[in-house]
Amino acid sequence: MVSENQQNEQSSLRSRWESDLSLEVVILIVFGVFMLLFGLLLFKIHTGDLPYAPDSTYGLFLVIVSLQVITMGKTPFGDLRRSWAVIVLGIFTAIVGMTACFIPGPLSEPVRILVGVLLFAGGFALFLQLVIPEGRARTWMKVPGVLRHLTLACALVYLFSIVLGAVTLLPGITTDPQTAVLLILYGICFFYLSWCIQAANRRYPPERPDMPEVPE
Q1: Which residue ranges does UniProt annotate as crossing the membrane (predicted)?
Q2: Backbone torsions φ then ψ of 79, nearest 5 degrees
Q3: Number of continuous H segments (helices) and E segments (strands) in the chain
């Protein structure tokens, strides 16, 4: 009896220290931190108080994207089966990103365009996938609670992706302070989305087929 109580206490302590955050949520939090930090630092970069290497910023973004592709098969354009082709694509993206980080200059224009396309076209594609299929936004909005928050969070992230993709492709359309504000809001939206997905996974565990669909 004593040993069982001790085991229960140890299990309780272990569960208290262990995190139940999924890998998807963790990567979204990393994206949120990246965007929020970039937005905050951009104010100082604009005034010349901090040095700035755009290649490294774009390269780091590509590395984070590649981790999402490699580990989960999630691309900026939607979910794919985690095949070898997808993994190789993710590795190639990581190599491009790391090269841009290590050697600023030669890949400046290609990585800027690549990041801009991923944000703009990816955000547009994901937004269409959210609103057009019957099993997503249309269904989630009928269910009160976290699924409505999830719909809003997804829409905000995708729309900000489109806007910032346009800013990346056409740098002159906004000032640095305006871009910084957009990045900060984008980061907050990532935090909001990560909370929604975590709450939805707790409310509707994936192993329960009778529950509404939760985005992967």
Answers
A1: 21-45, 57-77, 84-105, 111-132, 152-173, 179-197
A2: -85, 140
A3: 8, 2
CA 117 to chain centre: 16
Residues listed for the chain: 216
Q: Please tell me the distance from the alpha carbon of residue 14 to that of residue 17, in angstroms, as a whole number.
A: 5
**Single-letter code of the amino acid located at 53:** A
Measured distance CA(147)–CA(86) in Å, rounded: 29
Inter-residue long-range contacts of 101-108, CB under 8 Å, 24+ positions, other chains counted: 101/55, 101/56, 101/59, 101/60, 101/63, 104/53, 104/54, 104/55, 104/56, 105/55, 107/55, 107/59, 108/54, 108/55
Q: Which helix (H) or strand (E) holds 74?
A: strand 74-75
pTM: 0.85
DSSP codes, 26-40: HHHHHHHHHHHHHHH
| Residue 72 one-letter amino acid | M
Cβ proximity of 78 and 129 under 8 Å? yes
Separation in Å, CA 72 to CA 22, 75, 168, 184: 11, 9, 26, 26
**Rounded distance between C-alpha atoms, residue 181 and residue 156, angstroms:** 15
**Tokens read off for 110:** 């290609």
With a CB cutoff of 8 Å and minimum separation 6, the contacts of 55 are: 100, 101, 104, 105, 107, 108, 111
Extract the tokens encoding 72: 């989960």
Q: What is the pLDDT of residues 32-65, one digit of tens each?
A: 999 999 999 999 999 999 999 999 999 999 999 9
- Token pair, residue 113, equals 């365009």
- Residue 118 pLDDT level (bands cut at 50, 70, 90): very high
